[in-house]
User: Fold these one by one.
Assistant:
Number 1:
Amino acid sequence: MHAYVLGVEVEERVGLSVFPVHYDRGWHITGTAGVFGAAAAVGKLLGLDEQRMAWALSIAATQSSGLREMFGSMCKSLHPGRAAQNGMAAALLAKSGFTSSERGIEAPRGFGHVMSSRFDPEFVVNGLGERYEIMQNMYKPFACGLVVHPVIDGCLQLRRELQLDTAQISQVVARVNPLVMELTAKRAPTTGLESKFSVYHALAVALIYGAAGEAEFSIDVVSDPRVIALRERVSTQPDAALRKLEGHVRIELHDGRVFERRVENAVCSLAHPMSNDELEQKFLALVEGILPIDRANALIDGCWKIAAMDDAGEIARLAATGPL
C-alpha cells in the first residue's frame, strides 16, 4: 500500500510540475508522467536506496513518452501500459547498478525543462509527506473522457426522471467546457475507440441505453442506426465560464416540450463521488465474461479487506482467470 500511494504521489506531482503547458503541447501526461510513478512504486518494493532510486527516476525520465495525437486509436491505451513497463524496468535496472543522471527531472536538459516551457519543481516537493495528491483523485463511472461526464450525467438524470423515448427527441444541446470540444469533437466515429472521443456519441448512448460503459463504446453500438440518428441531433455550445466538471443539457422534443438540467458537479467529482455500490457495479461490468461471478465477488470482497490480509498476493490470485 505504501508503494502504491508513493507511486501515485510521484506521478501526479511530476505531472503537475509541467502542467498545463506540457499537455497543451500534445503530450499525453498519463504516459509521460506515469513512468515516474511506476519507477517509484517498484523501487519502493525493491527497497532501493537513495542513489538507486535517483537513478531509477532518471532512467524513467529518459523513457517518458506518449502523444495526444494517438487518442482514438489503440496507442492511447498503449501509453499507460508502456509507462508501467518502462517504470518497472527502470527500477530493476537501477537495482542492478545501471547508472543514470541523478537529475533526470530537474536538470536544464532533463524532463521538466525539455517537456514544458513552464516547469515548476516546487510542485514536486512542496508539502511532500504532509498533503497527498491521491486524495484529489476520482473514479470515473463512464468509459470516456472525464470532461464529458457532466453532460452524460445530465442526460441520464433526465432519462430516468422523464422515461424519455428517444424517438421523441428533436434536438439535444449540450453547453460544455471548451476542453470538451478540444478532446471529444469526433462527429462521426467509425470505431469503438474513436467513439470514446465523441461527445455526440456519448450523449446518444446515454439517452438510448441509459448507460455509458465499455459496452456502449463498442463497434456494434457505434454502427447502431438509432445511435447514428440521435448523435446527428446532438449539438454543443462551448462555454468558458463552465468548470471542467460542470455542464448543462437541453433536450427538445418534437411536440415542443423542453427539458433542461444543469450539473454543477458530475458524478465523479470530489463533491459527488461514486458510491461503493456504484464502484462494485462498474467492476462487475468490466469483468463480465472474463471472471465467473463467484470469483468476481470474491475479488471485490478481498479488495475491501486488503488491509487485513497477511499476503497481498491473494488479490492477484483471486484476479487470475485460471483455477485457484
Number 2:
Amino acid sequence: MASTTITRIESRFRELRENGRKGLVVYLTAGDPDLGAMDGLLQALDRAGVDVIELGVPFSDPLADGPVIQRASERALRSGTTLRKILERFPVWRQTVHAPIILFSYFNPILQFGLERFAATAAQVGIDGALVVDLTPEEAEGYVRTMRAHGLDTVFLASPTSTDARLERAAQLSTGFLYLISRTGVTGERSEMAAGVRPLVERARRITSLPIAVGFGISTPAQVGEVQAAADAAVVGSAVVHAIEEHYSTRGPAAIEQFVLGLKAATGGKPE
C-alpha cells in the first residue's frame, strides 16, 4: 500500500505556504561534468536554499530539451553516467543534502532498469519522486501505481496547449506538485516570459489544490519573481546548466551557489 506519511516535497511546500513564501526548483543533469562533481554541486544548491532539486537522468535522445541540456546529457553520457550509477551513488548525496530531490527522466532508462526495481531502489536510497517527461497521463497508470506503492511522488507536466481534460488528468496523477510548462517547445533560456503563464496557472488552480510550479524559459531573478507572482514555485533549468558549463571548470561549485543565490533572492532570500 502507498504510504500515508507526508512526503519531503509536501512538507517543503507546506512550510513555504505557512511562511508566506514562494519556492525555487532547480534542475541539473546528473553526471555533468561527471558523477564526482555531483557531491559538491548538490551541496551548493542545498546551501543556496533550493526548495526542490530536479536531477536529470542523461539520455541519448532528449527530445524535450534544448541545446544547453542536450550538451549536458552528452557530457554526462561520455563520463559514463547511467541510471544505475545514479542510484548507486545517491545514498552519499542524501547524507548531505536536505532538499527534496526528484529524478527527471525519459521513460526508456526506467523501462530498461525495470519499473518495480526502479521504484523500490529509488525509495530505498532516499529519492523523493520522479518526473518522466515523455510519459503521457493516458499511459501512466501502471507507473503511478508502482511509484505510489513505494511512497514516491509522481510529478506530471501540462502546457498552455493542454485541454482542460488533459490538465485535470495530469493533476490527478501528480503528487508533490504539478509542473506547468510556460510555453510550447523545448527547454532553454528566454529573454522574456510567455504571456500565457498566468492564465495557465489560473486554469490549473480551478481543478487542483496541489502546489503549482512553472518552468521552461526561466533564467533571471526577475523572471523567477514574475512566475512566483502567479505560481507557488519557479523552475530554473537551462540557466543553471549553462552556468555549470561556463564556470564550473574554473570556479567550481561556489560559482553555481552564487548564481542560485541570485535567483533565490527573488523568493525573499535564503531561508534561515
Number 3:
Amino acid sequence: MKIVISGNYGAGNIGDELILEGLLDITRKNFPESKITVLSGNPKETKEKHKVNSLEKVPAGFRSFFKSLLIEKCASRKAIKECDFFVMGGGGLFGGIEKKANCIWGMQALLPIIYKKPLIMVGQSIGRVDNSLIKFIIKNVFNRAKIISVRDVNSKKILKNIGVKGKIHVVPDNVFRLKNKSLKQRSKTIIVALRQMENLPGGFIKNISNFLKYLKKRDGWKIKFIDFQSGKHSDGIIHKKVIKNFYDPASIEHISNIKNKDQLFNEFAEAEFCLCMRLHSVIVSMITGTPFLALNYAPKIAGVVQLARLQDYILPLEKATAGRVNKKFQKILKNKDKISRDLDSYCKKAYNRHMEAEDGMMRNFNNSYSKFFQYQSY
C-alpha cells in the first residue's frame, strides 16, 4: 500500500513536526508494510528527522502547478498518481489569519482529487471564514474527502455552516499520541512561547515584559523563551523584543534551536509554568502536566483548551495586560498540583481515543474509507 501525506512540514515549525510524528506513528502501526511518502518544504530535513521518504510539495502557484501536470518527471505528482490514498494532516491549514494559505493548501488537495485518490483530512482546525472564495475552496476540498477529523467543536460548526456534508469527527490533536518520557524535577522556571505576528494589541509586548520582570525581580523566577517557529517569521523576533525590556537581558535564556521532541518535552517537564501563545506549547504543557496560561489569538487555541474543559487557563490576547496575566498566574500557581493531575487525566483520555481510532482503522479500512475513525466524537 502506498500512502502520501501532506502538510506544513519542513517549514521550521515545531508544532507541525510534532503533528507529523503523531500521524506517522498512526500510519506505521496500522500499515507496517506500507510505503509512506511525505510532501515537505524541506524533504532532506524531513527524511532525516522522521526516517521517511520525502519529496517536495506540489507547486502552489497556479502556473507552476499546471506546469507540473505536464512534466512527466515531477516526483510529487507521480507519487500522488500512484498512491492508494492521500492524507492531509492538520493543523490550522484552512481559514484563519493568512488568506493565501487557503489557496496553497487547496492546490495541494487538488492533485489527489484530479487522480481520484481517496482524500483524508486529519486533525484540521478551521479558522474564521468570511471570504466567498475561501468558503468555496474549503467547501469543495472537504466535500471531496472520504474522512474528516477536526481538533475542536468550533471547526466542525464552521465546516457545516459553509456546506460540508460528510460526517465530521472531533478528535484530539495527533500530538496527544506522543508520550512524555521525561523524569525531570521541576524548577522555578517559566517557559514563554509567544507567536510572531502582525497587528498585536497595543502595549502587548510591554505588558508581557512587565509581568515577567515583576516575577523575576520579586520572586526570582527563571525565564526561558522557546521559539516554536524559525525562519522568516521566527518567534525569536517577538521574543527578542520582550527580552530587550529586561534590566539584565543577558540573564534571560532564549532557545531558538530545539532539536527534537525529547528535548522539548524535557524543557516543559522541568518548568513550573508556561505562558503560551503557540498552540503546541499549550499541548506540550498538557502532555507534560505543566500548568499554563494560554494567550488566545485564534479560534484553534480556544478550541483545544475548551475541548479539554480548561477554560480557566485562557486569556484573550487583547486582555493580556500585566495585571490580568499576573492575576491568572497567581491563581494557577495556588492550584498547580491539582492542575497537573487534571492535565495528566485529560492526556490519558486523549491518548486512549487515538488507540480506539487505530482499532477502527485496522478493522474497517479495507472495507470502507468512511470508517477510518471508529470511535465516538467528543
Number 4:
Amino acid sequence: MSTSATAPGQFGEIGFATKPMSLWRMTLRRFLRHRMAVVGTVTLILIFLYIIIGSLIFSEAYANYNDTSIRLQPPSPEHPFGTDTVGRDILARTIYGGQISLMIGLLAAVVAVTIGTTVGALSGYYGGLLDAVLMRITEAMLSIPTILLLLVMSKFFSGRIPDVHLLGRTFSGSVIVIIVIIGLTSWMYLARIVRSCFLSLKEEEFVLAAHAMGAPHWRVILVHILPNTLAPIIVAATLGVASAILLEAYISFLGMGVRQPTASWGNMLDGAYQYLEQAPWLWIFPGLLIILTVMSINFVGDGLRDALDPRSEKKV
C-alpha cells in the first residue's frame, strides 16, 4: 500500500501541519493564561494612566498648596478624595505621590538587580577565592535587619542631601537617599540565585565550546551565560519593585522617609493613624493604591515566573 506525504495546511493522518511557535510567543501564551497576572497587568496600566494623566490635570504646586480653612474636609465634588490636615487636596497628592513611590520602586530595583547580577555572575563564573569573599559579604548583608539599617541610614543621610531639580520638578534629597539605600540592601537574594545559575551553566557544552573557540571571559559571561539567566532576574526585578514600594512606605510611615512637601504614598500615611475614625479618607486612598500596586506587581511576577519556566505545567 502506497503512502503519500501530507502537504502543509492539508488534513492528513496526523492532522493539520502547524508552524512551530517561537519562544517568546509561547512565553506570552503562558503569561496570558495566568488570569491573575493579566488582571495585575491591567491594574498596573490603569495606575500608570492615573498618575500620568492626572499630572496633566493637576499641577504639583496645586498638590502642595495648603489652605487650612478647608483642612480635613471629607470627599466632595470639589475634592473627590477629601483634604488632609493642612488643607491639601488628597487626589492631587496621590497622583504626585504615586510618581515618587513608583520611581523609588523602579530605580531601587534597578540598583539591586545591577549589584545582585554583577556579584552573582562574578562569584559563580570565577569561583575560588573571589566566590568565597563575595558570598561572605552577601551572607553578612543578609544577617543585618533591612528595616533597621534603612531607618538608621535614612536618619543619618536624609538631611545631608540637597533637593534635586529635574524636568521642572523639585525632588526632596531624601528620595535619592531612599533609592540608594533600598537598592544597596536588596540585592543579596538575587546574587545567590544568579550565582547558582552560573555555576550550573558554565559547565554546559555551549559554554565549553565558546571557551574552545577562544572567546574572552567577558563575552562568555555577557553573551552566552547571562541571557540564559534572564528569567530569574526578570522575576526578581519585578518582585523587587513591590518590595521597594513597601519599604518606602514603612520608613515614610515612621517619619524617616520622603520629606515634605514632596508627596509619596508612604508619607501620606504618616500621621493618618491619628485620624483613623475622624478622617478615614486620609489613609484609605493612599493605602488602597499601595495595596493595589503591590498586589498587581506580585501577580505579574507570578505570571512571569510561570511563563518563563520551560518546565511550566501550563500547557500552551
